[in-house]
Amino acid sequence: MDKMPKWADVVLIPLISLILAAALSALVILAIGEDPVAAVRLMVSGALGSTYGWGYTLYYATNFMFTGLAVAVAFHARMFNIGGEGQAMLGGLGVALMCLYVPWPHWTLALIGASTLAALFGAAWAAIPAWLQAKRGSHIVITTIMFNFIASAVLNYVLVNLMRPQGSMDPATARFPEPVHLPTLHELLAPIGINFSKAAPANVSLLVAVAACVLVWLLIWRTRLGYEIRAYGHSETGALYAGISPVRITMIAMLISGGLAGMMAINNVMGEAERLVLNATEGAGFIGIAVALMGRSHPFGVFLAAILFGFLYQGGAELALWTSIPRELIVVIQALVILFTGALDNMVRMPLEKLFLSLRKGRA
Amino acid sequence: MTGTSPAIELRGISKAFGPVQANKDISIRVMPGTIHGIIGENGAGKSTLMSILYGFYKADAGEIFINGKRTEIPDSQAAIAAGIGMVFQHFKLVENFTVLENVVLGAEDGRLLRPSLAKARKILGELAVEYELNVDPDSRIDRIGVGMQQRVEILKALYRQADILILDEPTGVLTPAEADQLFRILDRLRAEGKTIILITHKLREIMEITDTVSVMRRGEMTATVRTAGTGPDELAELMVGRKVLLRVDKAPASPGKTVLEVQNLRVRDQQGVERVKGIDLTVRAGEILGVAGVAGNGQSELLEVLGGMRPGAGTVMLNGVPLALEGRGSDGQSRRAAGLAHVPEDRQREGLIMEFHAWENVAFGYHHDPAYQRNAMLMDNAALRRDTQAKMEKFDVRPPDPWLTARNFSGGNQQKIVVAREIERNPDLLLVGQPTRGVDIGAIEFIHRQIVALRDQGAAILLVSVELDEILSLSDRIAVIFDGRMMGERLPAQTDETELGLLMAGVSGKAA
Q: For the ABC transporter domain, which residue ranges apply (chain B) (predicted)?
């Protein structure tokens, strides 16, 4: 029988984890002689207090939705795809190729083309570790990590040697032409009378990310393929019994996962930078792991967790800008949240399960 | 302390897991030098009770007395100190250690191993003489048979000076001959004054060896009786709470055309060891072929190859059409398309996804069925749930709730879900592995009737079971497997457990 009600699992545990992380962060801020209450206030007003703040929060959240969904899909097939970072880098390459070398008449077509190639590149990058796992039994955690480094090196080479415009000192591609610039939230919301900040990078990719959440939900819970992925994820021997091919599911789940991670590039490369720079992913691939863990691998959970981490990113940047709290401490706070919501899940879960059991016994 | 105080006495032991009352106010007295049986269905609370006695769980209420003295048993160290030894159903031995090393493990005298080993060797020698428990102390565990491994477990307990031995389902992995040997050892231990608690669900064993027997049902002790004053029928009734049919009523088979024909089937496991070494068999429509054998002699691999779960070599014809045994077309989906259904040996690891709802499990393996699809993309979960509801009612699955997770059904009801799913497909050939393992008596009766009913509809059935009783009562023909080969075929009416037991142990009789 279930140890505790579903709402406790979905709402209470992440909430408690978050409060613990916040409390510990407050202690750390106190320890360096700053005021935690003021810090929180600054984070909230910086990230959520203006459309400018929201624009950044949602921009980061868009990245994390893609990478979080990528990790979540792989989780359902019981695979730990740590390679979101590398897959997103390759996705960036796909976006850059599409945007620079195809004369798009309109951004909508460019978005479709760029998304497709970004997903293909990301999927291809995930396909190699997936094949090694499925056929050779090489552990996917190890191979995807290694492929992050390879992706980084490949991108470095491509940017420096192949795609850098003549005479430029910067390891980055040329700027994308005007027709492929994606509309920002400012441009999208202006027609309906909402004056969204012009300077914020959140753009139409956010809608694509939300659509991806819905599609992943449909895929996992409503389709035959999703059924097979979940069955394989729960029991490999069971999958074998039911005639579900482990090789096939491993490959497909990782292709989808890599494709989602790759699609992140339409946000950061096409939507924000409008050119491909080194380290464009800024660790979003790794944040995706925390997002998926916190979101319980459910697309809706991923959506919420992505916004939370968007808030932490933007709020953290504000802290670094306006206080003497050093940048490194912001990373510490983010790490604490990841630690508590992701890695230390059981620390909260087990006492809570006991509590619910004893409550129930009291009633029985 | 008088000489007549019981070796173990439990008074009012209760233990709950959440809302489940696993043990309710249980009291037992076991006199020294006797064998006391505890019998009950799966989930009746036998294992919980013994776990409390061995210090794995703490009782919510109740007291334990050892030799008349109240004793707290907070952990297994305390249980050992109190003279209690436990032989688990699944042995707790280190495979690549020798017998001697396993006996000493956890009971070393100091930091250096050598003196402990020398002492253990001497004591093992004495025990061997005293109880006729002969085991070569220098054999590695993975090189000796299951029966021997069990002796090592007993020796481990005796080495720790146990006066009270608890054996949990000790004969599950033994051949009938090995079981007889075990009973002789237990007899001898009793004669030497040891107290033994035997946990089992096999009525025959209770009748054969115990002095007194306690029956458990749903966490309660329903009766404690002297074995001499009772019989199997009465015990079965006490276990289930109603009269049960221990034999399956079935009409003689009227076999039709050959459905399954297997020739020279060979199977290797993941390590490349040959597990099935050239098997021939045929199953005709309307008959049940039972494959008897001790677990681990290749019958699991046989089922798995036929079910499309692992590759093999040889010829397998289903309805006259050869089946692919490796590569393309050898998977479970192709098998189902060819008219085969499969109740696998291990419902928890194979037959069900324990985290799935009942309705999701009803589609398991048949998730491509057009009836379960809404369109090219999406599954029709509503239709699937309706189908689940109907199957649950027909097969009396309790509770009949499609939304319940498989894990939350009892073993018997989990198995009913699997059986319902497979039988309702009206297959030409049904593979059945251990259909009633871990299933309560009431459900066993039901599942057996369903299998016979499918046979009477003209399906061919290949039954693999390690329970001889089950093989004898269900099969129309019996084939005995040993070390990956068929030792011969018998008709149930013309054979008995002794002859089958010999075949199962690899002793080839004259072909009947």
A: 8-243, 260-508
Kindly give, in sequence order, each residue whose CB lies less than 8 Å from that of residue B351, ignoring residues fewer than 6 positions away: A238, A241, B343, B344, B364, B414, B415, B418
Of B18, B332, B379, the CB nearest to A224: B379
Could you give the strand order of the β-sheet that contains B61-66, starting from the edge strand earlier in sequence?
A: B20-30, B8-17, B61-66, B69-70
**A256-289: burial string, b at 16+ Cβ within 10 Å, e else:** bbbbbbbbbbbbbbbbbbbbbbeebbebbbbbbb
The span from the CA of A235 to the CA of A237, in Å, is: 5
| Residue of A2, A235, A240 with shortest CB distance to B309 | A240
ipTM for the complex? 0.87
Tokens of A297: 């691998």
- Tell me which chain B residues have a C-beta less than 8 angstroms from the C-beta of A228: 367
pLDDT of residue B211: 95
User: What share of chain A has pLDDT > 70, as a percent?
Assistant: 98
Nearest CA in chain B to A364: B19
Counting one residue from chain A and one from chain B, the pairs whose CB atoms sit within 8 A come to 81
Most confident of A336-350, B55-69, B166-180: B55-69
Residue B192 has pLDDT above 80, yes or no: yes
Q: How many CB atoms lie within 10 A of CB B58?
A: 12
- Where are chain B's structural domains? 8-240, 258-504
Cβ within 8 Å, pair B353-A228: no
Residue of A nearest to B422 (CA): A242
A241 interaction partners in chain B (CB closer than 8 Å): 307, 309, 332, 342, 344, 350-351, 365
Q: Do A240 and B332 touch (CB under 8 A)?
A: yes
CATH topology for B8-240 is Rossmann fold (3.40.50)
* pLDDT tens digits along B418-453: 999 999 999 999 999 999 887 877 788 899 999 999
Query: Given a cut of 60, is residue A152 above it in pLDDT?
Result: yes
Q: Do B378 and A222 touch (CB under 8 A)?
A: yes
Q: From B345, which residue of chain A is nearest by alpha-carbon distance?
A: A241
| Spatial contact of A224 and B367, defined as CB atoms under 8 Å apart | yes
Residues B12-57 have pLDDT tens digits of 999 887 667 889 999 999 999 999 999 887 667 888 898 899 988 8
- The C-alpha atoms of residue B445 and residue B247 are separated, in whole angstroms, by 9
A3 close to B (CB below 8 A): yes
List the alpha helices (DSSP H) in chain A: 6-7, 13-31, 36-48, 51-76, 84-101, 107-131, 140-157, 185-189, 205-222, 224-234, 236-242, 246-263, 265, 284-294, 299-322, 327-338, 345-363
Confidence of residue A1 (pLDDT cuts 50, 70, 90): very low
**Of residues B18, B333, B334, nearest to A1 (C-beta):** B18
Residues 6+ positions from A319 with CB-CB distance below 8 Å: A39, A42, A43, A46, A325, A329, A330
Confidence of residue A3 (pLDDT cuts 50, 70, 90): low
Name all domains of chain A by residue range, CATH numbers in brackets: 61-305 (1.10.3470)
Q: Looking at this protein, which amino acid is placed at residue A181? A: H
Chain B CB contacts of A234 below 8 Å: 353-356
How many Å apart are CA A340 and CA A332, to the nearest integer?
Answer: 12
Do B408 and A361 count as a contact with CB atoms less than 8 A apart? Answer: no
Looking at the domain B258-504, which fold is it? Rossmann fold (3.40.50)
Q: What is the DSSP letter of A268?
A: I
